Amino acid sequence: MKLILIAFLFTIYTTQAAKVEFFSGKVIRGSTAVKDGLISITSQKGLYQYTLSLVKTISARKRELIVVGDIIELKKEPKQDSDVIYQLYEGTSVSKLSSVKDGYYRVRVFDEIGYLEESKASKILKKEILPKPIVEMTTTKGAIKFELLEDQTPNTVANFIRLVERSFYDSLSFHRKDDDFIIMAGDPEGTGEGGPGYFIRSEIFPDLKNKKGYVGMADSGLNTAGSQFYILLQDAPHLDGRYTVFARVIAGMDILPKLTVGDEILQAEVLEKRDHLYTVETISNEHMNYRKKQEVESIKEETASVEKAPEKKDKSKRRRRRRNRK
Length: 326
Description:
- Helices cover 19% and strands 35% of the residues.
- By secondary structure, it is an alpha+beta fold.
- It is globular.
């Protein structure tokens, strides 16, 4: 009887939970929440998070709706000038509590009950595969084309595209090469210490590995990348999980072994990109320096407190001495 009940409840859950289908063919059922280009899926097996651009369709089940559109608001009352409870994002699933009345659904989302415009709700959301941006770098030894992995690393790609469009990389030299391993460029100082004057956050995507022909951001720690990048001449699995891999070489692999330290990037050009504005979230040098200073001061305080801590006297030794005297 217990097994039948569990099976019945599971059937109810799977028919009411949204169905998320990926371009890869993978399917997950669960409630969805979308923000900042990421989709979180709460299923019976746990919480999953993916880049939204990997999703092909989101289908609502019974008593559910999928919110669609650009500006989506959950309102306290079913009217245009009502106060807003939440700003929602396309792809989020909500529970439908009533049919449409006066142009609004009564819904539940995030344990809140409110009203959603009929035009902002659908039973299915379909996404299209977007083309990957392409950048070409002409070097003194020939041209290299990169395919940028925007779906997984949107901010890093936006930063790279902005730097290319501002001719930042033009005339810069390759400043490091380790044969059969790596070649690096993107430093205006040519020392391995320079950058654009700011940092960007790391975007370490577990499915992107450091393989031959892949391109990653060079950095000195988490959230310290700027403009320097590396191209792998061989697989480097020991780098996985440490650096942002954001592109791969799709033409010019034969050029890479010919490059040496001192060879220049004559011109970098964006050949293709998606039809949207590329904005970059940056971290200022001042902010990073302040954080490092705080860390150093914290370490100094901990060291000082350890040095000042009084030594605890071993009472057991004193007791043993007293017994020996007796």
